[in-house]
Amino acid sequence: MNAVALSPICPLYTAPSAASPLADEVLCGWPLEVCEQPCPGWVRVRTDYRYEGYAPAAGLILGAGPCRRWAEREQRVVLQAAADVLDRPDVEGRRITTLFRGSLAAPLGGELAEGWQALCLPDGREGYTRSDFLGPYYKTPSSTDPEDLRKRVIERALTYLGVQYRWGGKSPLGIDCSGLVFMAWRLNGVSLYRDAKIVEGYPVREIPRNALAPADLLFFPGHVALYLGEGRYLHSTARSGSCGVVVNSLDPADGSFRPDLAERLTAVGSVFPLG
After folding, report:
1. Are 233 and 240 in contact (CB under 8 A)?
2. Most C-beta atoms within 10 A of its C-beta, which of 16, 140, 176, 259?
């Protein structure tokens, strides 16, 4: 690691230009590897889940020293959709920045009076947010019990219900189909491939359709969804009339049935081994 995202939402573009398509987003505190600096103001980076894109240099902390110091800190993850960081533990404090679900912050000491938590940002700035906005930062699966882990993944995924669709998005301000599935698992210590397909070397493997269980993945051409059980699934869709994170069904008898997707289901994938 020799870079850390500093912007609340740092965009990764397909080329070193904000006019190019958005490839991905990384959130404040996420570690990155610098691949090259192709032109002033831009850095090509690789994420810890091996996805690459071009980030504005102004949105990053660069250098081995600052990145090492950040990595050595205890870190917690933001679970609130949006968490203001204030200059004092008071609702009337000046807002330093706003962190979004999935961002990382380093707590400073224990919980303060009235539920406040002092914290440090990747660039060394200090501030305060509500302690219940933060949760454990899992680098390994959040549970060793498969059924419990499935439940946790679904719980996290459902917190994005109603968020608008955004191509390349991964935050509560906008999220795409693979971003939604990625974040549900990432917040539980498992990093999947960023796009809507099964790729060797990542945790998801294809399984028989009759083995489908909650928190498994449904793959369609250019689209992916998270299975909830009983034929229902959660996904972020750009479809007119339901543009965003919604629940649909594979069951024709269900009012939320999407025949256009049910007929094009190409594969089912799971993080869990069969049997």
Report:
1. no
2. 176
Specify whether 10 is catalytic.
Answer: no
String of b and e for 219-248 (b: at least 16 CB within 10 Å)? bbeebbbbbbeebbbbbbbeeeeeebbbbb
- Only one residue has tokens 């060394």, namely 124
What is the pLDDT confidence band of residue 1, given thresholds at 50, 70 and 90?
Answer: low
The verdict on whether 177 is a catalytic residue reads: yes
**pLDDT bucket at 264, cuts 50 / 70 / 90:** very high
Q: How many CB atoms lie within 10 A of CB 254?
A: 14
Q: Which of 10, 28, 67, 235 is catalytic?
A: 235
37-41, 88-92, 94-98, 223-227: least confidently modelled range: 37-41
The answer on pLDDT for 99 being more than 70 is yes
pLDDT tens-digit map of 162-203:
999 999 999 999 999 999 999 999 999 999 999 999 999 999
Q: Which helix (H) or strand (E) holds 246?
A: strand 244-249
Catalytic residue among 28, 67, 120, 177: 177
Based on the residue annotation, tell me whether 67 is a catalytic residue of this protein.
no
Residue 202: CB atoms within 10 Å: 17
Question: What does the pLDDT average to over 114-141?
Answer: 97
| Given the residues 28, 67, 120, 223, the one annotated as active site | 223
CA distances for 152 relative to 141, 145, 173, angstroms: 10, 11, 22
Dist CA 73 CA 84 (whole Å) = 21
